[in-house]
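Hi V.,

You were right to ask for the full record rather than a summary. Here it is.
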Amino acid sequence: MVPVWILLCYGLAAVLVHLMHRMYVRGRAGAPNREHYILVTRNHEQQMEWYLRAISWYAHLRGRDCRITVFDEGSEDDTLAITQLIKNSGDLELSVYGFSGRQGEDDMRRQAAAAEGETALLIDLRVPMEAAKIPYVHV
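Predicted structure:
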C-alpha cells in the first residue's frame, strides 16, 4: 500500500502546476511584452551590480523580457566600469549613457525610446528611497 503522504504530495504538485499555469495565462493576456527600466546613477558602485541582477531576476521569474538603460551623471567611482562589465558579459540587454544634470526626465525617456509593447519605469537612484522601486531591493 502506498503511504498517504506520497499521494498527498502528488496531488498538491498537480494543483500547484494548474494554478501556476492559470497565473501564467492571465498574466500574458493584455500585459506588456517587455519591461524597460531606466536608471539614473551617480557614484553607485557598491549597489550597481545588485540593482542590475535584481531587475534581471525579477523579469525572468515573471517570464518577461527586460531592457535596462543606465544614465550616469559623471560618477567618480567604478559605477560605469561595473555597468560596462555586466553589459559586455551579454547577460542583459543593457545600454549605458553619460548625461549632464541639465537633462530632464523627458530627454532621458526620449533617448531611451520605449519600444512598442514596452512599459518603462524611470528610477532616479540619486534620490533617496528611489531604489525601493527595484524588485528585491530594500532601502
